[in-house]
Amino acid sequence: MIDIETVQNVLDELRRLSGDACDTLECRIEAVLEKMASVELCALPTEEPVTVDEFLAAVESSCSIAAATLTKLVDRLHTLFATLRSFSDTVFVSLIVDKYH
Fold it and tell me: For 16-35, what is each residue's pLDDT tens digit?
């Protein structure tokens, strides 16, 4: 029979490991978010004036590049979250197995 103290100990260990995993991934997630924030959607002309058509073409081109970059970064975030989920599942199962077998 499993007692309440054992369950509490396992939960405490899981919380600690989960916190460590979150801290590790937060650093990675923060880096991805910083890259996302630095993606340029539109470069304003600084030297010579441009026509509306030239500006529109430049914006369309830079937004197309930005969309591809942001898609890759979002995919990376999904991978990081999936890794965190998998890690927490693995840790939880190993804690339960270690404590009760």
Answer: 777 767 766 666 778 888 88
